[in-house]
Write a sequence for this structure.
């Protein structure tokens, strides 16, 4: 039985000094690096300033 997707907030620091926060839906047993990659690719495809691609700099929190 698959677990239902849960929501995580992934905050990525960017070169402009701001943090950009993305919602990522994934199963409870998802690998944190995969959550980071999903948020980073979403940010990278946007018009926002470049985000640091450092896993250790990202903040990942489960909500809900």
């Amino acid at each position: 039985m698959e677990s239902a997707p849960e929501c995580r907030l992934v905050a990525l620091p960017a070169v402009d000094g701001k943090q950009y926060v993305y919602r990522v839906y994934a199963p409870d047993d998802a690998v944190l690096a995969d959550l980071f990659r999903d948020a980073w690719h979403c940010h990278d495809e946007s018009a926002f300033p470049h985000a640091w691609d450092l896993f250790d700099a990202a903040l990942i929190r489960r909500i809900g």
User: Anything to note?
Assistant: The mean pLDDT is 90. Helices lie at 32-44.
